[in-house]
Design goal:
It is a single chain. The chain is mainly α. The longest helix has 39 residues, at 3-41. The chain has a domain at 1-64. It has helices at 3-41, 44-78.
Length: 95
């Protein structure tokens, strides 16, 4: 190997080492960005999940209550005398 070849070989290995350190730095930077994103996230998705779960439960509770009320109206409506004999009692329901 002549001196010029050694110099090229040395320059080549320096460039390989430089690329290695750049890749390592990029990987470390990537990890730091991921940690930063997780920190800035602040459990946003978990809080949104809790919010929508609570909202859905409240809506189901209201719907069940409304359903029970309307079922009572249906039951009371079935008690109305179809012959209309006692018109004073048609719209008075004793519960």
């Amino acid at each position: 190997m002549c001196v010029n070849d050694r110099h090229l070989f040395f320059v080549y290995w320096l460039s390989v080492v430089e690329v290695f350190w750049q890749v390592k730095a990029l990987m470390q930077c990537r990890r730091m960005v991921l940690l930063l994103c997780q920190t800035l996230d602040g459990d946003y998705y978990e809080r949104m999940q809790d919010f929508f779960t609570s909202l859905a439960r409240a809506e189901l509770s209201c719907a069940n209550t409304a359903s029970e009320c309307f079922q009572q109206v249906v039951d009371d409506a079935s008690k109305v005398n179809a012959s209309r004999c006692n018109s004073s009692e048609l719209f008075v329901f004793v519960t």
